[in-house]
Amino acid sequence: ILNVEQSPQSLHVQEGDSTNFTCSFPSSNFYALHWYRWETAKSPEALFVMTLNGDEKKKGRISATLNTKEGYSYLYIKGSQPEDSATYLCALDHSNYQLIWGAGTKLIIKP
Amino acid sequence: DTGVSQDPRHKITKRGQNVTFRCDPISEHNRLYWYRQTLGQGPEFLTYFQNEAQLEKSRLLSDRFSAERPKGSFSTLEIQRTEQGDSAMYLCASSSTNEKLFFGSGTQLSVL
């Protein structure tokens, strides 16, 4: 059974500080790694889809890296703002269509 | 609005009743997914359509669950003889081949 793990489960960060969290996945049968942000009372929103080992993607203050050989991805947020408060989900695409989801990291930014 | 839409947003039903949810994907997307999400968990895969063909259905899905996507456009998810354990958020998402998923707002089901 394929398992995607995210850590930490939750995180409190002071406004203005930078932070990062981890998504771990089995490195076999890798097709792509997705990151989504899920704000309360909204739909999950795609951040990145990463396919290549060593890939790094950036969207504003948020960036992500990918290591397919060791099976992990990091999501970084620089200079956290209150609007960054959300649950961040990663998902492994191992078959070209079915995503295996992690349980998410809940990020709370303290003003 | 050209996003994914789901109807209804909320559904309260009594145990044993049948319920049906609808999802209208982004029109040019050929892939459509149904997920279920319970508190504190990530989305749980239910089923997947490529155009009108249902290519995979989760083994966790009982025979009480059925989904259709006639003509490869909108999709319906039906739950027969609902149980309290079916209470969850049901999410629909669509995508083009190998691209990111776009999610609807979900249908929150409460079975009393």
What can you see in these coordinates?
The complex is a heterodimer of chains A (111) and B (112). By secondary structure, chain A is mainly β. Helix content of chain A is 0%, strand content 54%. Chain A has no helices and 11 strands. Chain A has strands at 5-7, 10-14, 19-24, 32-38, 45-50, 56-59, 62-67, 72-77, 86-93, 99-101, 105-110. In chain A, strands 2, 4, 5, 9, 10 and 11 form a 6-stranded mixed sheet that branches. The radius of gyration of chain A is 13 Å and the shape is globular. In chain A, 36% of the residues are buried. With 112 residues, chain B is mostly beta strands. Chain B is built from no helices and 11 strands. Chain B has strands at 5-7, 10-13, 19-24, 31-37, 44-50, 53-57, 65-68, 75-79, 88-95, 102-103, 107-111. In chain B, strands 2, 4, 5, 6, 9, 10 and 11 form a 7-stranded mixed sheet that branches. In chain B, a hairpin with a 6-residue loop joins strand 7 and strand 8. Classes of the chains: A mainly beta (111), B mainly beta (112). At the A-B interface, strand 4, strand 5 and strand 10 of A face strand 5 and strand 10 of B.
- The shape of chain B, in one word, is globular
The residue fraction in helices of chain B comes out at: under 10%
Using DSSP, what is the number of strands of chain A? 11
Helix tally of chain A? 0
How would you state the average pLDDT of chain A, rounded? 92
Distance between the termini of chain B: 33 Å
Largest sheet of chain A: 6 strands, mixed
Q: Please, what is the average pLDDT of chain B?
A: 90
Which pair of protein chains has the largest interface, and what are the residue counts? A-B, 21 and 24 residues
Count the DSSP helices of chain B: 0
The counted number of beta strands of chain B is 11
Question: How big a fraction of the residues of chain A is strand?
Answer: over 45%
